[in-house]
Design brief:
The complex is a heterotrimer of chains A (about 250), B (about 350) and C (about 180). Chain A is an alpha/beta fold. Helices cover about 35% and strands about 20% of the residues of chain A. Chain A contains nine helices and nine strands. In chain A, helix 1 crosses helix 7 (about 180-200). Chain B has about 350 residues and is of the alpha/beta class. Chain B folds into two domains: about 5-235, Rossmann fold, CATH 3.40.50; about 240-350, Rossmann fold (3-Layer(aba) Sandwich), CATH 3.40.50. Chain B has a seven-stranded mixed β-sheet with strand order 3-2-4-5-7-6-12, sandwiched between helices. The chains are: A alpha/beta (about 250), B alpha/beta (about 350), C alpha/beta (about 180). The complex binds thiamine diphosphate, iron/sulfur cluster (SF4) and magnesium ion (MG). Iron/sulfur cluster binds near residues 52, 127, 213, 214 and 216 of chain A. Iron/sulfur cluster binds near residues 19, 22, 24, 122 and 213 of chain A.
């Protein structure tokens, strides 16, 4: 019998700590499959930010560095400069990248560091219990925006993929979503493209993935997927915001 | 009026801040102190206050600086790595003589560490943490009521001395509940702030700064600060002392270990062992005189901490030279249970023999 | 008087509820109380445990590793806390879920109660915590039914107020079973 749905080699056979229904797990699987397909796992080093992704080392049988909260792009910079022949990816949540780590992500991107960053936007700080993040939607209630996010005091949700696309050093910036099979397929392609950018030494690549946090949104996993489609995508449009085709920057 | 409500430590602290007149809170989430920002997000607006979910702890402490420079009572709270990120700002606050209240509900480190109760940040809080020759006022609550009362005290001391005040508590103190009176014991003090930056209309311009480049200027400034710290040491020591009159052994502990020590002491006394307690409530200023006097007589000290030995160094400096100093430490992740402490008491007293 | 109890089980078994009732009733009686819930990571695993210390003197440690009583609402709770019960102490176990063979310490007093079955017999599985509470009141002797009756309204959230009479009945039932000392 042929297995048609097989665990990728680059994903360990363990039960994850993610809440049932959390799309972090999908992102993990896609990254693992892509590392398998490109045959790069044995020379790839992963750098998770601090958030629900912090246990990345439990799931990927690769080398892993645990970075301080928000600093993964700086750690990745140091690592890539020290070993340019390795594939380095950072994996950050929206609190990690779009709040505490804005400085590091912008400057790594602006320097055109030849690294790949996977960005899980689930509109809250998941790990700490669902507080408001810079990506939280207007009107969205969280434990620290109990009356709903109000632009007058908390500003507008940050569009990281678009913002990073404005920087010259960026080779590839895209936003995908993880709520339906069709979108998951697109996400997979984006992840592959991002790794290829690094392999071909094109510069900085980032894939923003719209994600769910059903636990802290306080809805069922299924309803969370619907909310992603209904509420996140209208504000966070999917698409490619920058794609370099040749080393024209040289 | 003085009815007590079963209250969580972190909530008592947050309500204490509101009652102290704090109307500006800036913070970034981190376990195990999230109850504080979450409570203030809900309740500060009801008092006309401002809550900002800041983008980082670096931003938080600098927002505090801005509000404080405006003459307002402002606070931030965090834990472990977040407090580390604030150190530059705290040093600036001390150097430019600005009040602020910074709360550290400690997590175990180093690094990302864990969230079990711990006291690993004693040195960071008491002996600097940031750069330069400064002191924080450091308060260490040992009950839910003190989480409330000492928060008010922290704002008063910070304003009185124009200096950052830190509250450090282990997660047990933050997370457990006790009956608590949620109104101030006495009217809250609000000192005049003749240094606040409010626009120079009708007066000379004011300046808050910490850069001193002129000949001897920096030294003069440091000596001035030193004088202030001496004054704090002289006037503001808070300490709880129990069962010291006949004590042959004194336990010195703060926060949760002091609570555990109280239980261990009553177990020890049931067995006829004469043990007493000194619980520093202020860690700076440290109860140097109290420790010296009592150790001169009791001759035996047992320091209990939830770390590998931090406050014990200050006890060594303070204690009488003839006192034998024993240490029992359980770093974060472990816990000093009452019978563990009882065992240490017996060891320190020579197997229980007297 | 000094009494410490650990109440443990999985989320949804109403452990917070009964521990809140006991804590408040003790406070109203003028006693000192400390209430220590599990926090952080443990919360995520879906476990609930509460350490309560009740005393007429000042309470030192809010943590106890030799409690006079453990209320264990499932097998995991028995596993975790059985060894900690102080000698001659009381282990109230939810025998609807816990095999009697697990209650094998001879130096403590086991009190197995079929909490779920008793609760169902009263009309709702949700009352199992109250059966345990009743048994605790009867055996610990620090609080009476009246003390609890006086505070239950205050502890019960608005949407559950209509369950109060059934809860009180279940507490009475727990007291009755414990008084008979029989394993049912
Ligand atoms: C300096 C510092 N501040 C705060 C924290 C606490 N913390 C841990 S994870 C996290 C937020 C995670 O949110 P996000 O990056 O969105 O990841 P998610 O869990 O939602 O995937 C925070 C604030 C920390 N570890 N370090
Ligand atoms: S808290 Fe949210 S982001 Fe974290 S594992 Fe659970 S669902 Fe996923
Ligand atoms: Mg997030």
């Amino acid at each position: 019998m042929n297995a048609i749905f097989k665990r990728p080699d680059s994903l360990k056979d363990t039960i994850t700590h993610f809440c049932p229904g959390c799309t972090h797990g999908i992102a993990h699987r896609l990254i693992a499959e892509t590392m398998d397909e490109l045959g790069i796992a044995d020379r790839t080093i992963g750098i998770p930010g601090v958030g629900c992704c912090v246990f990345l080392y439990n799931y990927f049988p690769i080398d892993v560095l645990e970075a301080p909260h928000g600093r993964a792009p700086a750690c990745a910079t140091g690592m890539k400069r020290a070993q340019p022949d390795k594939i380095i990816f950072a994996y950050q949540g929206d609190g990690d990248m779009a709040a505490i780590g804005t400085s590091e992500i912008i400057h790594a991107a602006n320097r055109g560091e030849n690294i790949t960053v996977f960005f899980i936007n689930n509109s809250v700080y998941g790990m700490t219990g669902g507080q408001m993040a810079p990506t939280t939607l207007l009107g969205q209630q969280t434990t620290t925006s109990p009356y709903g996010r109000d632009f007058k005091s908390e500003g507008y949700p940050i569009k990281m993929a678009e913002m990073l696309a404005t920087l010259e050093g960026v080779a590839y910036s895209t936003r995908v979503a993880l709520h339906s099979p069709k979108h998951v397929n697109q996400a997979k392609k984006a992840i592959r493209k991002a790794f290829e950018m690094q392999i071909n030494e094109m510069g900085f690549s980032v894939v923003e993935m719209l994600s769910t946090c059903n636990t802290n949104w306080r809805v069922s996993p299924l309803e969370a997927l619907k909310m992603l489609e209904r509420e996140m995508i209208p504000y966070y449009p999917l698409g490619v915001f920058k794609e370099r085709t040749g080393k024209d920057f040289l | 009026m003085t009815e007590k409500k079963l209250t969580k430590g972190n909530i008592a602290l947050a309500e204490g801040a509101i009652q102290a007149g704090c109307r500006f809170y800036f913070g970034y989430p981190i376990t195990p102190q999230n109850d504080i920002p979450e409570y203030l997000a809900r309740n500060l607006p009801k008092h006309g206050g401002t809550f900002i979910p800041a983008e980082s702890e670096i931003a938080s402490i600098n927002m505090v600086m801005g509000a404080s420079a405006s003459g307002k009572r402002a606070m931030t709270s965090s834990s472990g790595p977040g407090i580390s990120l604030m150190q530059e700002g705290i040093s600036y606050l001390a150097g430019s003589e600005m009040p602020a209240v910074i709360v550290n509900i400690m997590r175990c480190g180093p690094g990302l560490g864990g969230i079990a109760p711990t006291q690993g940040d004693y040195n960071q809080a008491v002996h600097g943490g940031g750069h330069g020759d400064y002191r924080n006022i450091v308060l260490a609550p040992g009950s839910v009521q003190e989480m409330f009362d000492l928060t008010i005290k922290a704002f008063e001391l910070a304003d009185r001395y124009r200096n950052p005040a830190m509250i450090i508590a282990d997660a047990m103190i933050g997370q457990f509940q006790e009956p608590c009176r949620l109104t101030p014991e006495r009217p809250v003090e609000f000192p005049e702030k003749s240094w606040a930056l409010t626009g120079r209309r009708g007066r000379d311009p004011r300046l808050l700064k910490s850069l001193y480049l002129g000949d001897y200027e920096q030294e003069e400034h440091n000596l001035f600060l030193k004088q202030k710290y001496d004054e704090i040491q002289e006037n503001e020591v808070m300490v709880e002392m129990q069962n010291l009159d006949d004590a042959e052994l004194i336990i010195i502990a703060f926060g949760t270990p002091a609570r555990v020590a109280k239980t261990a002491i009553s177990l020890a006394r049931e067995e006829g062992l004469r043990v007493g307690l000194i619980r520093p409530i202020t860690l700076f200023p440290f109860p140097v005189n109290e420790i010296y006097e009592h150790s001169a007589r009791a001759k035996n000290i047992l320091v209990v901490e939830m770390n590998t030995g931090q406050m014990v160094r200050d006890v060594r400096i303070a204690a009488h030279k003839d006192a034998a100093i024993h240490f029992y430490g359980r770093p974060g992740g472990g816990f000093p249970f009452p019978d563990d402490v009882l065992g240490e008491i017996k060891k320190a007293l020579g197997g229980g023999a007297r | 008087m000094y009494y410490d109890v650990i109440m443990a089980g999985f989320g949804g078994q109403g452990i917070q509820m009964i521990s809140q009732i006991v804590a408040l009733a003790a406070i109203r009686k003028g006693l000192n109380v400390t209430y220590l819930p599990s926090y952080g990571v443990e919360k995520r695993g879906g476990r609930t445990n509460v350490t309560l210390v009740i005393a007429d003197e000042e309470i030192g440690s809010m943590v106890s590793n030799h409690p006079k009583c453990v209320i264990a609402m499932d097998t995991i709770a028995v596993d975790k806390y059985k060894a900690q019960v102080a000698p001659k102490g009381l282990l109230i176990a939810n025998a609807s879920l816990v095999p009697l063979a697990m209650l094998d310490r001879s130096d403590i007093v086991p009190l197995p109660l079929r909490c779920n079955d008793e609760a169902l017999a009263l009309g709702s599985a949700k009352l199992s915590n109250m059966i345990a509470l009743g048994a605790f009141l009867q055996r610990s002797e620090i609080l009476g039914f009246g003390d609890v009756e006086a505070v239950i309204d205050e502890v019960t959230p608005e949407r559950l107020k209509k369950t109060i009479p059934a809860n009180l009945e279940a507490i009475r039932r727990g007291i009755e079973i414990a008084a008979n000392g029989s394993v049912r």
